Amino acid sequence: MRAKRWLGGILILLIFIIPIQTYAEITGPEAFDGLSWELVHEEELHGGVIQSMCVTDNYIICIENMADNSETLDIVSAYYRYDKDADGNPVEQYSLANRVQDREWEHGNGMTYNRRTNEIYVSLYTNTIEENRGCLYVMDPDTLSYKRTVKVADDYNILGIDYIEEFDQYVIQTNVDGGYSFKILDRNFQVIDDLGEFKDSTVGINFQDCMVSGDYIITFPLTLDMGIGDYFSVYSIKGRCMVKETRLDFGIDEGISEEPESLCEIGPGEILAVVNIYTGNANHVARFYKTQVPYYHYVTVESENGQVSGTRIPVLRGGECSIDFTPDEGYEFSELTLDGAVQEMAEDAVSFSLNNVQGDHHVRVTFTKIPFPVVKAVLIALATLAAIAVVFVIFRRVEQNLKRKRRREMLARRRERNRRREQRLEKELDQLEELEEIIDRQDYRSRIQKGKK
């Protein structure tokens, strides 16, 4: 039972530093209808009646009230919450871990555990010691011993109590002197809100201990020997009213007198109830019953540079959850983490699914900017240069061909001019030759004529 105190101190310090956030919640008032209860533990008591129960990190703590006087010492028992102890050694779940009988705890009608302070607070209901009116006893959860007394009020006693870890507050229910009202206390046990009086709001003649789950305060109304059975009375903190009254069936044989006394939440939507069974013998029997209430867990989704199908998705316990995601323009899917752990995903993934959801989860989808495609750009540049080179080569060839053609045409024109010049010259020569012949003939004739004379 004794933990390493330095480790406990560090954990408590972390609890104060790190804000506690819870998202899961009971699906609604109708969730309390038709609950199925499983008997998980039974043991013979020691002549008293278990009045209250709370759960710590490793134990289930109960007070067995031996008598309503200031002389008889009550019994405080701790049972293993899990099948392993605080050091990881295997144990039988719900078996006895420790038992102390060194103090009178008044009626001990209710109790709750605060992880931040590592203390148990006991609502007394009675004040056989006059100065105990309106007080709470503080218990050490490791030694089960008394530590101190906290004064809450002077004009009423406290029936039940539970701690709301999310807000670091307490819910108490007063006795009839306070009209069976529910009140909210701050961490210093100062009343900061009164939800109203609830006398005659439900069946029964009084109330047992209470517990809080989300918006709901759940309590057993006292119906012992009324012949009407056992009930849950459920109240809404936000609505400040009773939202459900439902009959319970623990599967106990007819003719056996039972009294549900206390209840606590041992897991999200998992309620453990202690029921006293009056057998007619000197020693009664206590039974632990467990049930699961239909419960929503929440999957929160975070993303940047992309769109997701939901940011806070309610999922019924054991159900499935699918998340679709799309990157913004210019971005692409990079990574998805579930509760901080990177998940193996396809590069082109567009959705993610969770199956058999049993708790709250946080999903983060990361999108990254699509990088400039260097290799592709280089290939495109090379292809462009190659194309330019091909065009240049073709252009040069065309240009060269045109030059050759122009030269050929120019040479052809020169040849044609030369041919024509030659033709002219030949014609002129021919004409000269003809003229010379004419001149020669005339000269010949002229000499002939002179000879005749």
Describe this protein's structure:
This protein is of the alpha+beta class and 453 residues long. It has 2 helices and 29 strands. The protein has 3 domains: 5-293, Tachylectin-2, Chain A (5 Propeller); 297-369; 384-453. It has helices at 5-17, 374-452, and strands spanning 25-26, 38-44, 49-55, 59-65, 74-80, 96-103, 110-114, 119-123, 135-139, 146-151, 158-164, 169-174, 182-185, 191-196, 207-213, 216-221, 230-236, 241-248, 257-267, 270-278, 285-292, 295-304, 306-308, 312-316, 321-327, 331-338, 341-342, 351-354, 361-369. Strands 1, 22, 24, 26, 27 and 29 form a 6-stranded mixed β-sheet that branches. The model is unreliable at 1-22 (pLDDT under 50).
As residue ranges, the low-confidence spans are 1-22
Strand fraction = 35-45%
Helix/strand-derived class?
alpha+beta
Instruction: Indicate the CATH topology of the largest domain.
Output: Tachylectin-2, Chain A
Number of strands: 29
Q: What's the Cα radius of gyration?
A: 51 Å
Basic shape: rod-shaped
Largest sheet: 6 strands, mixed
Number of folding domains? 3
Distance between the termini: 180 Å
CATH class call of the largest domain: Mainly Beta
Q: What would you say the CATH architecture of the largest domain is?
A: 5 Propeller
Would you tell me the overall average pLDDT? 90
List the total number of helices.
Answer: 2
The helix fraction, in percent, is: 10-25%
